[in-house]
């Protein structure tokens, strides 16, 4: 891990890819590589200020009413900061490219290409396409245009999908400002659900994950799924609606109790029941598959980096 962080460049991207392959990467390495999705050590806040002022030609204070100098996320080619636009007070995310990242990637690809020519020349065409894809990422103006196009293509068709919009006139080659979406990383939300499932079986999350991974690698998980009844998306949604309705009724009763019996009888008020957010994996998987298929097969423009750190549950 220390070597990857020291070398940076393409090695971080390879680590990100490895973090999504539990079928071939040992668990110990998976946990380490997962940090590369959005937890790479960031550049200091002064670097962010310098890049922003250089990109827009004015002091940072004239652009943002608030700016967090501590990066909220950092990954392959850049880092992100939270801010508020001056005037509108809109919450935004500012994406800033790392210094010399393009040169580092060029050197990394050149080195790897020499090795591939020697060891596996048949993979050169695939590697060339891989390199071309990265070159596109270095111009944030292209990313802004892609966000705008994909948003207009997808959001009218899929109301449950939100794609952050770039702020007009605030995209340069090295700095991109986009609207901020509040949410939780999908992978984190799923881990919470896994922890609940593990607890119901009297296991720790680590034990549960290890058991599922062993079954997945051996094919047992697939065989069990074919034999056993698993609830459909409709059943999960129906159950979630029923639980929410019951909890709402209970909260109405608690409200009446707190505002009638409690003041008269000097009783201790009851706490309201917190509504549980249900995650329906069936719907999420189907929705993500539909959206990416539409982007690729219909629109011809798509998110080519849908790793778990890039998908949020809003």
Q: What do you see in this structure?
A:
The protein is of the alpha+beta class. The chain has two domains: 2-185, no CATH class; 187-299, no CATH class. 54% of the residues lie in helices and 11% in strands. It contains 13 helices and eight strands.
Mean pLDDT: 84
Provide the gyration radius in Å. 24 Å
Largest sheet geometry: 6 strands, antiparallel
The tally of beta strands, per DSSP, is: 8
In brief:
With 314 residues, the chain is α+β, with helices and mostly antiparallel strands. It contains 13 helices and eight strands.
Provide the descriptors you would attach to this structure in a database record:
Kinase-like_dom_sf, ABC1 atypical kinase-like domain-containing protein, alpha+beta, two-stranded antiparallel sheet, 314 residues, 11% strand, 6-stranded antiparallel β-sheet, 54% helix
Helix/strand layout:
Layout: H1 2-7, H2 10-19, H3 27-34, H4 45-56, E1 64-67, E2 73-74, E3 78-85, E4 91-97, H5 101-119, H6 124-137, H7 140-154, E5 166-171, E6 175-179, E7 184-185, H8 186-200, H9 205-218, H10 220-227, H11 233-258, H12 261-265, H13 281-299, E8 312-313
Antiparallel strand pairs: 1-3, 2-3, 3-4, 4-6, 5-6, 7-8
Helix pairs in contact: 2-3, 5-6, 8-9
Protein name: ABC1 atypical kinase-like domain-containing protein
Organism: Rotaria magnacalcarata
Family: Belongs to the protein kinase superfamily. ADCK protein kinase family.
């Amino acid at each position: 891990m220390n070597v990857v962080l020291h070398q940076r460049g393409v090695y971080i991207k390879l680590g990100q890819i490895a973090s999504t392959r539990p079928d071939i990467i040992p668990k110990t390495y998976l946990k380490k590589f997962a940090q590369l999705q959005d937890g790479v050590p960031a550049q200091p806040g002064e670097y962010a200020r310098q890049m922003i002022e250089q990109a827009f030609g004015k002091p940072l204070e004239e652009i943002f009413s608030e700016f967090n100098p501590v990066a909220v996320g950092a990954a392959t080619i850049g880092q992100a900061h939270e801010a508020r636009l001056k005037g509108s007070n809109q919450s935004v995310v500012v994406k800033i490219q790392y210094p010399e990242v393009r040169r580092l990637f060029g050197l990394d690809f050149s080195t790897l290409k020499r090795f591939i020519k020697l060891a596996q020349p048949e993979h050169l065409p695939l590697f060339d396409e891989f390199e071309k894809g990265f070159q596109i990422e270095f111009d944030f103006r292209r990313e802004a245009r892609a966000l705008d196009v994909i948003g207009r293509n997808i959001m009218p068709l899929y109301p449950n999908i939100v794609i952050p919009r770039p702020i007009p006139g605030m995209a340069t080659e090295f700095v991109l400002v986009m609207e901020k979406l509040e949410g939780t990383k999908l992978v984190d939300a799923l881990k919470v659900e896994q922890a609940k499932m593990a607890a119901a079986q009297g296991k720790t999350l680590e034990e549960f994950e290890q058991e599922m991974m062993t079954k997945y690698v051996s094919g047992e998980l697939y065989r069990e799924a074919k034999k056993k009844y698993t609830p459909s998306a409709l059943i999960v949604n129906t159950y979630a609606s029923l639980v929410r309705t019951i909890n709402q009724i209970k909260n109405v009763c608690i409200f009446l109790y707190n505002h009638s019996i409690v003041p008269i009888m000097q009783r201790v008020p009851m706490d309201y029941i917190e509504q549980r957010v249900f995650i329906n994996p069936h719907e999420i998987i189907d929705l993500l598959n539909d959206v990416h298929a539409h982007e690729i097969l219909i629109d011809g423009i798509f998110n080519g980096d849908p790793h778990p750190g890039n998908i949020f549950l809003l």
